[in-house]
Amino acid sequence: MVFEIKSRIATFGGELLKLSHASSATKTPMAVSIYLPPASKTTRVPVLLYLSGLTCTPDNCSEKGFLHATASKRGIAIVYPDTSPRGANIAGEDDAYDFGSGAGFYVDAVQEPWSNHYKMETYIVSELLTSLFEELSSSSSSPEINIAEKLDKSRISITGHSMGGHGALTLYLKNPGLFKSVSAFAPISNPSRCPWGEKAFAGYLGSDDKEEWKKHDATELVKAGGWKGKDLKALIDVGTGDDFYKQGQLLPENFEAAVKEAGVSDVTVRYQENYDHSYYFISTFAQDHVEHAAKYLF
Amino acid sequence: MVFEIKSRIATFGGELLKLSHASSATKTPMAVSIYLPPASKTTRVPVLLYLSGLTCTPDNCSEKGFLHATASKRGIAIVYPDTSPRGANIAGEDDAYDFGSGAGFYVDAVQEPWSNHYKMETYIVSELLTSLFEELSSSSSSPEINIAEKLDKSRISITGHSMGGHGALTLYLKNPGLFKSVSAFAPISNPSRCPWGEKAFAGYLGSDDKEEWKKHDATELVKAGGWKGKDLKALIDVGTGDDFYKQGQLLPENFEAAVKEAGVSDVTVRYQENYDHSYYFISTFAQDHVEHAAKYLF
């Protein structure tokens, strides 16, 4: 598989590459962007994978998240996958903001017809990371650039926002050793018990086997006990003015209680007074999250 | 006149206020946003006025420009006016991206029907700044906040992007002493001689008296000689990958030549390799422009 370079944009001393590639996991083209810091011109740099929230494309956070300012200084590449397949031509896929297009929830769907394309867990963990580190990227319209040789595949951390915070926490917890650290902005921390998660899990995973849901729920994954006595290397920020937090969509307290109960260490959850769910919140704390990753990547 | 607070958003330790007020200059409601840094809780802070480019509302730069990161640290308020009246109900006002709505060019129109509403120079210089510094702001939905008592009206600087860079340079040059310094991102530096400026000036000012155009053209204002031997305290950044620069819409070289010819000092024009016209460019150099203002505001 070869990445097609849609555009190259100079920013913060490095460049943002907007890419597209044919995914075998989703059987669709997938958009992904990558910020390459100036250090990548002379050395292999570690990678911070940023998973976006409901409705987002790779553009939202790369335009508004402000991660590049610190990633530029620290020499970290940021990878922004899309939040779902696009154009899978499934009836109703564009009908809701919280299911289907823009709402893949970072799980592999088992329910028809979603299971034909909505394989976001496999896409992210098995396909995208492998491709970025191994494939020669080329474009007919731009000079060739070999992304793989700019990245250090032994050093990857993960972060995300809202649905992407859920994705970051669950993919981290399910794949010990793959990522050096995890962080999240306003994550959906216990999706089995909130309206967004219940709708998505019922639709993608089915409602018959709730045990299956637990494999994609950060709070339940911690309760399962595999991380007992271990350092989670996790930083979580939640705004107290976040309407979705107030509505019980995020439930970070459940995650905190599970962490305490399970005897997991090195988890910092901060409640930021008055901050909302928007990029005004993300951009404010972006520096802290990139620095958190840097602590473990270097 | 009283500002209505549409929303208050916590960001970078301070808050962004989205306001609306009835303008006597434009005879329409006008949107304006203001970022209040944390220092404004305890002291009067200086102000950096940011004028946006074609098509923009106060939201574009407040979401994507990243001026707040440095404004927060330095204790500077940022004011984001809109780029034109909205809803003036002039036939054709929404037909083009570069004339009418979103394209007021910071001049007072004299041509009918625009002259009934498109008085952006008067709005910015005479009405907005006066109102911000003197009016008690209130909202039925939020706790009252007195913006005026948080701002130091004796310390104002001005900056802007593209059409807003034109606005920043011309309003600065035309009002000696009003602003402490000026900067611009990719400014339309010689509008009398580029397609954007020619269209806007012909429409708002008429084509009969080209001398009138010179009063709203940064290059011509410098040529006029009033700044001879004086420090302009100006910082300008232009990306060499900017398509509008390549198309001759910006003409910063004309401004530089005029500065040299007129014997004006303290003007820094930087050509940033490969950078484009977007917020990826603005956000990269936002820190430098806020620091430039800070140098003269403190």
TrEMBL record, chains A, B:
Active-site residues per Swiss-Prot or TrEMBL entry: S162, D242, H277
Role, per record: Serine hydrolase involved in the detoxification of formaldehyde.
Domain of life of the organism encoding this protein: Eukaryota
Gene Ontology biological process: formaldehyde catabolic process
Similarity comment: Belongs to the esterase D family.
UniProt xrefs under InterPro entries: AB_hydrolase_fold, Esterase-like, S-formylglutathione_hydrol
PANTHER family (alphabetical): S-FORMYLGLUTATHIONE HYDROLASE (PTHR10061)
Documented EC number(s): 3.1.2.12
GO molecular function: carboxylic ester hydrolase activity; S-formylglutathione hydrolase activity
Keywords carried by this UniProt record: Cytoplasm, Hydrolase, Serine esterase
Catalyzed reaction equations: S-formylglutathione + H2O = formate + glutathione + H(+)
Protein name listed in UniProt: S-formylglutathione hydrolase
Gene Ontology CC entries for this record: cytosol
Root EC class: hydrolase
Cell location: Cytoplasm
Keyword Transmembrane: no
